[in-house]
Amino acid sequence: MAALHEEVRTRYHIAVCTRFVERVCVDTPSPTAEFIYKMALNENLKDITDVGTLPRVSLLQLNSLPCSLVLQVSSSRDVTQPLRPCLDTSEEEPILAAAFQKNLKTRLLRLVLSDGHSEVPAVELSTLSVFRSIPVPGEKLLVKEGAEIKNGAIIMTDDCVVPLGGGVQQLKKEVLIQQSRSDAPRFQPLRFGVSTPAGARAAAGPLSDSFDRDRGGNVGRARGRGLGYRGGRESGYRGQRPHNHHYNRPQ
User: Which stretches of the chain are DSSP H helices?
Assistant: First the structure.
């Protein structure tokens, strides 16, 4: 068991615990290191590792990754897209597809990667060709030795990152639940000439009532002045004068 455990860590850069190796051996007699590695890709690293593989020193003190590591995606997003999708999105559109599968030419990924015990951010400064789609939490990535580190974040490039696939169903379900609980406001069109419902009027409070009273009063006063009124008290009558040819103008 110990030999298999060490071989998986040395050849495939993933530190599976001996308990996981024993569990695999129960179901599959005499498994190879490659078989154990492939099984590990579909497991949560938190459950199958006893120790972390990320450097114990702060990544802020490092300029590059000292060794190759298999890390698990904890979260992922395209920083060029809104944090929350609008609720007006069609319900038939799969939530995961809307949240993760957009592969735009202007995409810029920000991932949080984990060895099962600690996490590190990873970013792409330009759209990489190695990602056919945005990685979903639970997928595994191989980050090669020498990957550049800036300000504590791994700078992903086509040469230093290899998507390995895999997945964790529980993590995918959690993402679905989180996305379905989005509280982004639904678009409400502005309507003219529609009476305000009683419930909305009550919610608006006294401000709405005072506005309606003022508006009604102004309309009433405008109607009381008559159609010929065009000015103030001293502006005089500006309506149409009677057809009288003998009208005497004041001298």
Answer: 2-12, 18-27, 33-40, 45-48, 95-100, 169-180, 198-204, 206-224
